[in-house]
Amino acid sequence: MKSKSKFTVKIPSEIYKGEVFITAFFIVLNVMYTIFGNPPHFPMYISTILFVFIPIAISLLWIRKLKIVVSGSKITVRKILGFKYSVDVSEITKIKWIINDTRFDPPPVK
Question: Quick one: average pLDDT of 38-44?
Answer without folding.
Answer: 84
